[in-house]
Specification:
heterodimer, A: mainly alpha, 3 helices, about 0% strand, B: about 220 residues, mainly alpha, two-stranded antiparallel ribbon, 8 helices, 2 strands, about 75% helix
Chain lengths: ~100, ~220
């Protein structure tokens, strides 16, 4: 296995195994929005509905497992998108 | 620090989107000429790491959490233009697959966390790193770069809220900068830890020692 295979596996493990243990508290911006009273502006239907809203894979009873699967899918999607983009940029170099 | 839809007005969203789109096009153009095939999987891994790390909120203070942004880390590892693409890819997937950050606010989120965090973080790392090529100095530079990148993002985010008429400057600026000064410390710690891991396994990527030094380490 090459270095990046191992590194990707580490990232997938982090995404799947550690994500269910993340702090459920609101983040800095959410907290400020609550305190200053503009948090409600973000309520209402989403502009575009996402397949896995809020990192919880739908239809799975265990929320920890649903989050772990969401993390795994997300990390793989980001890797695939960047790998494809990198290949495309490298290819455009040859044809240029 | 992902802005949801509803916080920004249309003009602010469009203006931020235009700047971010321009930056992504420029970054692609800059890399098109010199993308190292060896670095393509590293870009992918960096993105996967940032995505994973952003899911893991750590408690900061008084019921507030924060998570790594990663802009400075990726800029230090891959250079600013590759980092812009990595951060944008993470934010795009978060937005469209996980509804984290609004679709209309995507340009602003790329501007705050992808572009300004990357450029200011990288500039901080490069200027502090000029003091000495010693690895300890580079770790200090990396910590400062991570903190600056988070603060710059929070500053810009605050101004987007102000321009949109969502919040008043005298309350939102101290609130956002205050909490992100603490989140930025967490960002610095994780950035330094991640760099230490890379330096152990791939010193050719970071701290990119001279070939003789790499040979000595083996």
């Amino acid at each position: 296995m090459k270095w990046w295979h191992w590194a990707l596996v580490v990232c997938l493990v982090v995404a799947a195994i550690l994500s269910p243990f993340a702090s459920p508290w609101p983040d800095g911006l959410e907290r400020v929005a609550e305190r200053l009273g503009f948090a409600a502006r973000a309520e209402g239907p989403a502009t575009v509905s996402a397949p896995i809203p809020d990192y919880v894979f739908p239809g799975i009873a265990s929320e920890g497992l649903a989050t772990a699967i969401a993390g795994l899918i997300g990390a793989l999607l980001v890797f695939a998108l960047l790998y494809g983009l990198g290949k495309a940029l490298a290819h455009s170099d040859k044809s240029a | 620090m992902h802005i949801p839809d509803g916080f920004l007005d249309l003009q602010t969203s469009v203006a931020a989107g235009a700047i971010s789109a321009g930056a992504v096009v420029y970054a692609s153009y800059a890399l098109r000429r010199r993308v190292d095939p060896e670095k393509i999987p590293v870009m992918g891994v960096a993105g996967a790491f940032v995505f994973a790390a952003q899911m893991i909120n750590f408690p900061v203070v008084g019921g507030t959490s924060g998570h790594l942004v990663g802009a400075a880390l990726v800029a230090i590892l891959l250079g600013p233009w590759a980092a812009v693409l990595v951060m944008t890819a993470v934010l795009v997937i978060q937005c469209f697959v996980f509804q984290d950050g609004g679709v209309l606010a995507l340009g602003a989120n790329v501007l705050n966390m992808g572009l300004v965090g990357v450029l200011l973080g990288y500039a901080t790392y490069a200027s502090v790193g000029k003091i000495s090529r010693r690895v300890s100095v580079r770790y200090v530079a990396s910590f400062l770069a991570a903190w600056v990148a988070v603060m710059a993002g929070a500053f810009l985010c605050s101004w987007e809220l102000i321009i949109s008429g969502t919040a008043a400057p005298q309350v939102v600026l101290p609130a956002m900068l205050g909490v992100h000064a603490l989140i930025g410390v967490g960002e610095g710690v994780i950035t330094v830890a991640a760099l230490a891991l890379v330096s152990r396994s791939r010193p050719d990527i970071w701290p990119a020692l001279e070939p003789a030094e790499v040979a000595q380490q083996k």
